[in-house]
UniProtKB/TrEMBL annotation:
NCBIfam families per the UniProt record, alphabetical: sensory_box (TIGR00229)
Keyword Nucleotide-binding: yes
Transmembrane segments: none
KW Coiled coil (keyword) present: yes
Residues annotated as domain PAS: 8-59
Superkingdom: Bacteria
Protein's UniProt name: HTH-type transcriptional regulatory protein TyrR
Domain Sigma-54 factor interaction: 153-382
Gene Ontology terms describing biological process: regulation of DNA-templated transcription
Organism encoding this protein: Domibacillus epiphyticus
Length: 456
């Protein structure tokens, strides 16, 4: 044998031994010629059990369950079978090598250990089952907390959870409710929530803004009038809003703006559940649930003599204070994402918020509350050139200090709030726990555990 041929043989042997997968070569008669080190590593079969031996004898001894080599020699084509070698399940492929006359000269066998694949299949099955469990839990959670998303209520803060829970309780009774909070916090939305969850859901729901109706017209609007009650009155008279709300609910927004003289008539409605039209002498019984709201301090108005004390106590049976956005900053990313999604759907956009924009929005004081953030997000979306909305697209200034002030707080509390904020922002944008976990650089199971721990 020439030196070049020797070198080629050495190279072939080195290549075969370098293969991670087991390789075995037999001649055209079925006798073993070559096997690499990986064959012994994977199967435990040594050279003296295969090399120089006919594969029929190896099968008889139980070393292998079947011979791909003999199958290839018989069928004269490449084949793949499942084979048990020394008790190990393997995927085996046999490939024939033909000479110039088209006869098989050698059969090269490649083995692949599929025990790892089986393990992966089992792990995948368990992961799928776990994912299905999480999905069911999430569906149950969403079903249980569906009212949180009712008519634009997007909330995950403990303060809003308390408000919503109290609103749900009030929906089951007929008690008079007074909604307190700054302008734009969503008092009308909470009133709608109470209405929709109660047994008056399919009955009239009349909304009255006491500040928007001229004071000299408010009485006729609320209580109605009879024919000829005043100049310009309809010749058949007209039922007031309380009559129109009969059987349902009336929502008196900005109740603090009601004229003092008219408050006595409203008190009579709340006490006797009856109204008298202007210019009329008969009393009409009504069945109305009253929900009122104000952004003013009614106690101060009572002290000044601008609001009747007896009416205040009648309205204030169950007060529900709706916190401003600056007191529930964890809701801001959800709200911003919600309103941006509505704008995207409305105009066919695909806009989204940058991390810096989220931080900016969460640090802003929002004097106009939810109404302001809704308007600002829409303005930014329709005026920005790029799909990614950045800090420059929002006309607000970050106040001095951290978004998460650390004074008088433990490290654990600060870390938890940062985690909570990052998860809320990511889940609001990416929707699923799988995508969110990938973005945050953690496993899905770790994310779900964190969400449970943080009460999300």
């Amino acid at each position: 044998m020439h030196s070049l041929e020797v070198e080629v043989v050495k190279l072939y042997k080195a290549v075969i031994d370098a293969s991670y997968d087991p390789i075995f070569v037999a001649d055209h008669t079925g006798i073993g010629l070559i096997m690499n080190e990986a064959y012994t590593r994977v199967t435990g079969v040594k050279e003296d059990q295969l090399i120089g031996r006919h594969l029929r004898d190896v099968i008889k001894e139980g070393v292998i369950s079947d011979s791909i080599t003999l199958n290839v020699l018989r069928k004269k084509k490449q084949m793949t079978i499942m084979q048990n070698v020394n008790g190990k399940e393997l995927l085996v492929t046999g490939s024939p090598i033909f000479d110039h006359q088209g006869a098989i000269k050698y059969v090269v066998t490649n083995l692949r250990d599929i025990s790892d694949l089986q393990t992966l299949k089992e792990e995948l099955k368990k992961t799928k089952e776990l994912a299905e469990t999480y999905l069911k839990e999430l569906e149950q959670y969403q079903e249980k907390k569906q009212f949180i998303m009712h008519e634009g209520i997007i909330a995950n803060s403990s303060k809003m959870a308390f408000v919503i829970d109290l609103a749900e309780k009030m929906a089951r009774v007929q008690t008079t409710v007074l909604l307190l909070g700054e302008s734009g916090v969503g008092k009308e939305v909470i009133a709608s929530l109470i209405q929709s969850l109660g047994d008056r859901a399919n009955k009239p729901f009349i909304k009255v803004n006491c500040a928007a109706i001229p004071k000299d017209l408010l009485e006729s609007e609320l209580f109605g009038y009879e024919k000829g009650a005043f100049t310009g009155a309809h010749d058949k008279g007209r039922p007031g809003l309380f009559e129109q709300a009969n059987g349902g609910t009336i929502f008196l927004d900005e109740i603090g703006e009601m004229p003092f003289a008219l408050q006595a008539k409203l008190l009579r409605v709340l006490q006797e559940f009856e109204v008298t039209r202007i210019g009329g002498g008969r009393t009409l019984k009504i069945d109305v649930r009253v929900i009122s709201a104000t952004n003013q301090d009614l106690e101060s108005l009572v002290a000044k003599g601008e609001f009747r004390e007896d009416l205040y106590y009648r309205l204030n049976i169950v007060p529900i204070r709706i916190p401003p956005l600056r007191e529930r900053r964890e809701d801001i990313p959800l709200l911003a994402c919600h309103f941006l999604s509505k704008v995207n759907k409305k105009y066919g956009f695909s806009k989204h918020l940058s991390d810096d924009a989220y931080r900016l929005l969460q640090s802003y004081s929002w004097p106009g509350n939810i109404r302001e953030i809704q308007n600002m997000v829409e303005r930014a979306a329709v005026t920005a050139e790029d799909d990614l909305l950045g800090v420059e697209d929002f006309p607000v200034t970050i106040p001095p200090g951290d978004v998460f002030p650390t004074q008088n707080r433990t490290l654990k509390e600060v870390v938890s709030e940062v985690e909570r904020d990052m998860i809320l922002r990511a889940i609001a944008e990416y929707k699923t726990t799988r995508k969110t976990a990938g973005v945050l650089g953690i496993s899905q199971s770790a994310l779900v555990k964190k969400m449970k721990r943080l009460g999300l």
